[in-house]
Amino acid sequence: MTVERKSALVEALADQASNLALRFPGYQEQVLERLTRIVMNQDSYAAETARRKAISDEVSALADLVILDKGAEGAGA
Amino acid sequence: MKIRSVGIQNFKLMRDVKLDFSLDPAHPLTVIRAENGNGKTTLLHALSWALYGDKGLPAEARNMRLLDSSTEVGKPERVQVRIDFENKDSQGLTVRYRLIRTLEQTLTGPDPQDVKDGPGSVLLYRITDSGEDEVEVSLIRKLFPERLLRVFFTDGDGVQAFISGSEAAVTRQKEVHNAINALLGLDELRAAAANIKEVASSKRRDAAAAAGGSRKAAEEVLAARETEEREAGERLAECEERLANMTVQKSAWNKELDELRGKGDLDEIQARLATVRAELTVLDAEQKSVLKDIRTLFESETFSWKAMEPVLLQGLTCFETLVDQGVVPGISIEVLRDRVNDGVCICGESLAEHPAEASVRRNHVISVIEENLSRSLESQALTELWHRARTSWDNESARRVEESPENFDDRRQALMDRYTGKTDQIRAKRAEESELDQQRTAIDEVRVDRLRNQIDGVEKKINDANSERGGLKVYFDAAVLARESARAAFEKAEKEAGKSERAELERLIAEDLHEVASSALKAMETEYVSKVAEKTSQMFLYIVGADPEYEAGVFTGVTINDNFDIKVNSRDASLDPAFELNGASKRALTLSFIWSLMEVAGSQEPRVIDTPLGMIAGGVRERMVKAITSPNNLDSQTVLLLTRSEIRDIEDLLTERAGEYWTLTCSKDVKDLVHPWGADRAEVRVCGCTHRQSCELCARKYDAQHGVMFQTRGDI
Q1: B93, B95, B196: best mutation site toward chain A, by most A Cβ within 10 Å?
Q2: What are the φ and ψ backbone dihedral angles of B8, each rounded to 5 degrees?
Q3: Could you write out the DSSP letters of every residue in B569-586?
Q4: Which of B150, B496, B613, B647 has the fewest beta carbons under 10 Å from its own?
């Protein structure tokens, strides 16, 4: 994928991430970063299962962040 | 991306051809001049075969020989195409590659499919200052996506697959959709969205399993419905794909059949041949009948009289002489003897022995008797013959007076005229029969029959597939409704059930990611299609010389609708390009679409087009070449394969835009070449002549009318 096409894709993802009502609006940046990585890595894995495992890992990592933040909020409170 | 050079060995008539391509951003065009049948299409196929393998070749040419037909049967030969190209990496640095595709083939007979493939290989190297490093061949698929074969390498007719041709509308839409997705990099996003959706489903199942109870049951129902929907969708997609492939195949077969029919309609020729042969049978019979009449005439008494008349007349004349001489009629010896015995002559005078006067008469009669005795047999026969001849001639003369005034000569002449007439008619019919036979021989009857059977077969399959598609669509729609219903039930159960926090959290995050990805995909498709349509419109109007503001004009713009149908707008209506544009406008539209798509996508891939300017002349030709060869910020490369006729009137423009020129020449054109060059077998060779030059290799007898100047090799 060329640099121009990548930036157009990231721009479109960013637009949608900011326009849509996400369940966890505080993680827009993280969502965008990981989503971009997911898209860019689609052809890095030969097998479908490997692609889904990578996506699942990204989702788990985001969940960890949310839980961590909630824990921090709880501790702060 | 740019092609730097290509080397071709034993691909069809190209035994050893090497070409360099222009890398100059200010002169992005490479002009390859060749007359029809001189290697343009072979070069195009060699490039696409090297990059895409058998899939790069037209459907009808796959699994057939790549070697020239004159290659020795049974002797293995190596076909090889090498492409050196360069590409910019993600840091904008130029990386050079070398692709080498090789295949060993052995011809096993005279037909194109009589070939046995031996070992083959595809190797890709990254070229560095220190040498060549082998890299994964799969990189080729990323750099030259298979779906874009028709964009990168095409010809004047093939390029129209996006808008017209015999292909079904669904196939054309798919071509446009594929081209947009592949060039704009949407395939990765589409795949990512699909995979995220699967992960979201998986997370949902995990969450349901953790929550248990009715929610779990609802989730299982939902999962089952989703599976049914996906499977129904896959079956429907598979059916549509099959339908589209069959339609493409049918189109290819129809095209081939049309080409074969271009040599004459086989049915019509067969029918004419049958008629001519029936007419010949009748003529033969009539000629035999005339011949029989002639034989009868010559066997008749009339002919005998005619043939013998001079001889008979001569005979009768002779008889008259004999009559005059008294030879005929002959005298009866018995009568004379009786007279001598009686002693009285027929005249009454005495034939007695006495007196002396009577004795003299008696001795004379006796001498006549003796004389006649010596010749009596001949005389009698002559007398009989004389009588018969005279009687027959009298009868024949009487018959001639009584019979028809048409004499033998008239009858003979009439019969001979009829015979000659029939002979001429038969000769003319035989010539017609021979000509028709030659026409029929020119048509490959076996191939035509096979194509007809194949087309009939595929038509039946297309009908079956259409019926199947209808059923599958109904089933798929029902599956969508069932899934939506299950989803509603699940969401209801979800609210009622307690939540498993971690699993639920992951599910929600996955669904968020899916929503963003799928929305971005939709937005990009809409936005990019809109951009492509806008640029296509501008370029098309420029090429065809249309002014949308001009009230009496025909074209006002181009749009691409939600179904990926390309439409040309007129004053108060939209025009279907497949049926309502002329050949030049069709080419202008499709090239505008390809160029706009690549520009919007920022694509730098080379575009190689064979004979793009056929059917295009005047201002449209000049503006088209200007539009597709203009240097741009994408630094893209254009290769045009042109005939001398296509080059005419745009020589200056080509000089301005081109950085490399080559001329391909095939030795088979001995009648057109000024200096026919010897080769054991037909062969395509290359020289560095520009579109204004010719040399000993490429000079043609009609070069002067194209403004081409001869120069010896040393001058070039």
Answers
A1: B196
A2: -125, 130
A3: E-SSSEE-HHHHS-HHHH
A4: B496
User: What's the total number of domains in chain B?
Assistant: 1
Q: Give the nearest partner residue to A24 out of B88, B509, B601, using CB atoms.
A: B509
The C-alpha R_g of chain A, in whole angstroms, comes to: 15
Q: Is residue B224 part of a domain?
A: no
Domain with B391 in it: 281-426
Residue B368 belongs to a domain: yes
Q: Is residue B344 domain-resident? A: yes
- The answer to whether the complex's ipTM is over 0.85 is yes
Instruction: Tell which phi-psi region holds residue B131, choosing left (phi > 0), alpha (psi between -120 and 50) or beta.
Output: left
* Integer Cα distance of B156 and B607 in angstroms: 13
Pick B443 or A39 by higher pLDDT. A39
User: Residues B565-589, buried b or exposed e (16+ Cβ, 10 A)?
Assistant: bbbbbeeeebbebbebbeebbbbbb
If you search the block for the tokens 């699942």, which residue do you land on?
Answer: A56
Contact by Cβ (8 Å): B661, B695: no
Interface A-B: count of C-beta contacts within 8 A: 113
Chain B residues with CB inside 8 Å of A55's CB? 192, 195-196, 199, 510, 513
On whether the CB atoms of residues B509 and B209 are closer than 8 A, the answer is no
Cα B339 from Cα B345, distance rounded (Å): 6
pLDDT attached to residue A76: 46
In a domain, B263, yes or no: no
CB B454 within 8 Å of CB B253: yes
* Binding-site residues on chain A for chain B (CB distance < 8 A): 1-6, 8-9, 12-13, 15-17, 19-20, 22-24, 31-32, 34-35, 38-40, 42-43, 48, 51-52, 55-56, 58-60, 62-63, 66-67
For B359-381, how does the pLDDT look when each residue is reduced to its tens digit (9 = 90+)? 998 998 888 888 777 666 677 77
pTM for this predicted structure? 0.59
